[in-house]
Amino acid sequence: KLKSLVRTSRAREALERTAEALAVLHGYKDPKVPRWTVADHLAKAPQVIHLLAQFLPELSEQIEEIGHALRARAPRDQDCASGFVHGDFHYGQVLIHPTKVGFLDFDQAHTGPVAADLGRLLAHLRYQRIKGRQAEDGSVAASFLEAYARATQKPLIPQVISWWTALELLQMSVKPIRRLDADGPYKVKALIEEIEGLLQCK
Question: Can you give the pTM of this predicted structure?
Answer without folding.
Answer: 0.93
